[in-house]
Amino acid sequence: MFDEIHEECGVFGAYRVDNAASITYYGLHSLQHRGQEASGIAVSDGENITLQKGKGLTVDVFQKEKLDSMVGRLAVGHVRYSTAGGQENENIQPIVSKGHNGSLAIVHNGQIVNEKELRIELENEGAIFQGTSDSEIILHLIQKQKGTLKERVMKTANRIEGAFSFLVMNEDTIYAVRDRHGLRPLSYAKSKDGYVISSETCAFEVMGIYESVDLKPGEIVEFHKGIVKHEFYSTNTDNHMCAMEYIYFARPDSVVEGINVHAFRKATGSILAREDKDLHADIVIGVPDSSLSAAIGYAEEAGIPFETGLIKNRYVGRTFIQPTQAMRDRSVRLKLSPVSSVVKGKSIVMIDDSIVRGTTSRRIVQLLKDAGATQVHVRIASPVITSPCFYGVDTSTKDQLIGAQMSVEEIRDYIHADTLRFMTEEEMKEATHGVGLCLACFNGEYCTKLFSYQEELDK
Amino acid sequence: MFDEIHEECGVFGAYRVDNAASITYYGLHSLQHRGQEASGIAVSDGENITLQKGKGLTVDVFQKEKLDSMVGRLAVGHVRYSTAGGQENENIQPIVSKGHNGSLAIVHNGQIVNEKELRIELENEGAIFQGTSDSEIILHLIQKQKGTLKERVMKTANRIEGAFSFLVMNEDTIYAVRDRHGLRPLSYAKSKDGYVISSETCAFEVMGIYESVDLKPGEIVEFHKGIVKHEFYSTNTDNHMCAMEYIYFARPDSVVEGINVHAFRKATGSILAREDKDLHADIVIGVPDSSLSAAIGYAEEAGIPFETGLIKNRYVGRTFIQPTQAMRDRSVRLKLSPVSSVVKGKSIVMIDDSIVRGTTSRRIVQLLKDAGATQVHVRIASPVITSPCFYGVDTSTKDQLIGAQMSVEEIRDYIHADTLRFMTEEEMKEATHGVGLCLACFNGEYCTKLFSYQEELDK
Amino acid sequence: MFDEIHEECGVFGAYRVDNAASITYYGLHSLQHRGQEASGIAVSDGENITLQKGKGLTVDVFQKEKLDSMVGRLAVGHVRYSTAGGQENENIQPIVSKGHNGSLAIVHNGQIVNEKELRIELENEGAIFQGTSDSEIILHLIQKQKGTLKERVMKTANRIEGAFSFLVMNEDTIYAVRDRHGLRPLSYAKSKDGYVISSETCAFEVMGIYESVDLKPGEIVEFHKGIVKHEFYSTNTDNHMCAMEYIYFARPDSVVEGINVHAFRKATGSILAREDKDLHADIVIGVPDSSLSAAIGYAEEAGIPFETGLIKNRYVGRTFIQPTQAMRDRSVRLKLSPVSSVVKGKSIVMIDDSIVRGTTSRRIVQLLKDAGATQVHVRIASPVITSPCFYGVDTSTKDQLIGAQMSVEEIRDYIHADTLRFMTEEEMKEATHGVGLCLACFNGEYCTKLFSYQEELDK
Amino acid sequence: MFDEIHEECGVFGAYRVDNAASITYYGLHSLQHRGQEASGIAVSDGENITLQKGKGLTVDVFQKEKLDSMVGRLAVGHVRYSTAGGQENENIQPIVSKGHNGSLAIVHNGQIVNEKELRIELENEGAIFQGTSDSEIILHLIQKQKGTLKERVMKTANRIEGAFSFLVMNEDTIYAVRDRHGLRPLSYAKSKDGYVISSETCAFEVMGIYESVDLKPGEIVEFHKGIVKHEFYSTNTDNHMCAMEYIYFARPDSVVEGINVHAFRKATGSILAREDKDLHADIVIGVPDSSLSAAIGYAEEAGIPFETGLIKNRYVGRTFIQPTQAMRDRSVRLKLSPVSSVVKGKSIVMIDDSIVRGTTSRRIVQLLKDAGATQVHVRIASPVITSPCFYGVDTSTKDQLIGAQMSVEEIRDYIHADTLRFMTEEEMKEATHGVGLCLACFNGEYCTKLFSYQEELDK
Question: Which residues bind [4Fe-4S] cluster (chains A, B, C, D) (predicted)?
Answer without folding.
Answer: 242, 389, 438, 441
